[in-house]
Amino acid sequence: MSLPADYHMHTPLCRHARGEPEEYVRHALKLGFKEIGFSDHAPMPQDDFDNWRMNADKLDEYVAKIRRVQKDFPQLTIRLALEVDYLPGYEDWIRKLAARHPWDYFIGSVHYVSDSWAIDDPQKLSEWQHRDAGEVWTVYFERLAKAAETGFFEIIGHADLPKKFGHRPSHDCAPLYQKFLKAAQKNNCAIELNTAGLRKDCLEIYPSREILQLAFQTGVRITFGSDAHAPEEVGMNFAEAVQLARSVGYRECCRFTQRKRELAPV
Question: Which residues make beta-bridge pairs with 228?
Fold first, then answer.
């Protein structure tokens, strides 16, 4: 199988990953990848915003690390990107990040449904005991739709992240999904098949088959990502992700260079 690009990989600069970029690259080459992309967690304006992203003064170091492996491994196409949190009120910050370097793409992710609660943070897992899953999913997908509408992002990351610990709403969320997907399609924003969900409590790729089927019907493009936080996680479960994509009708995925999109076969 020809592997699609793995566009979601981290580095130790985010403070919760291990292995230097060179180790990720070597594992990707071992697996037969032709293209990968590093998309570490972008800094926020305040370094104490949380403890799972790079500090602002590390951004240039991050770029230098990726430029170094691009030079050292010319046989592999390596993209420079960021995973950027979307929170209402931080739009100017995202614009400043975008202007800092010639990025290949931005992955827009929603982790926060309030200013203080990241729904996927294991250290704040107890917060779920005080929340209604349906309300969380509603706020989450409303923010995801707003993220797509901004036009800041080439890709939306792990599009049903609230299921990570197994919390799912009891009501039909199809209207929420459709609103988000229509926004993504209108703004030429792809969604990723993120295999990290298979390594979490939900035991399911992000997004679910239901969402992916709606995405295909809506005309939303796709990418693939392992969300690797260690070298051995690069490309993990890509066979399952490709099978899922093809089973709902996808035959193409996106590639990005300097924030310009082209299509490649799945």
Answer: 9
Q: Which two tokens stand for residue 39?
A: 């998309």
Tokens of 251: 């035959």
Cβ neighbors of 51 (< 8 A, separation 6 or more) are 15, 16
Q: 260 by DSSP, 3-state: which?
A: strand
Q: Using an 8 Å Cβ cutoff, are 1 and 242 in contact? A: yes
Note the pLDDT tens digit of each residue in 37-83. Answer: 999 999 999 999 999 999 999 999 999 999 999 999 999 999 999 99
Give the residue numbers spanning the domain of 93.
12-265
Stretch 255-266: mean pLDDT: 98
Q: What does the alpha-carbon distance between residue 107 and residue 64 come to, in Å, rounded to a whole number?
A: 20
* 266, amino acid identity: V
The strand pairing partners of 265, in sequence order, are 252
Q: CB count, 10 Å around CB of 263?
A: 11
CATH number at residue 25: 3.20.20.140
Block residue for tokens 């590639």:
255
Q: How far apart are CA 95 and CA 85, in angstroms?
A: 12
State the Cα–Cα distance between residues 72 and 20, nearest whole angstrom: 13
This prediction's pTM: 0.98
Residue bearing tokens 């990241």: 118
Number of domains in the chain: 1
For the chain, give the percent of residues with pLDDT over 70: 100
Q: How many CB atoms within 10 Å of residue 116?
A: 9
Is 5 a member of any domain? no
> Phi first, then psi: what are they for 116, rounded to 5°?
-120, -5
The tokens for 70 are 């691009």
- Sign of the four-CA dihedral 13, 15, 19, 23: negative
Burial classification of residue 169, based on how many CB atoms lie within 10 Å of its CB (0-12 exposed, 13-18 middle, 19 or more buried): middle
Other Cβ atoms less than 10 A from the Cβ of 213: the count is 15
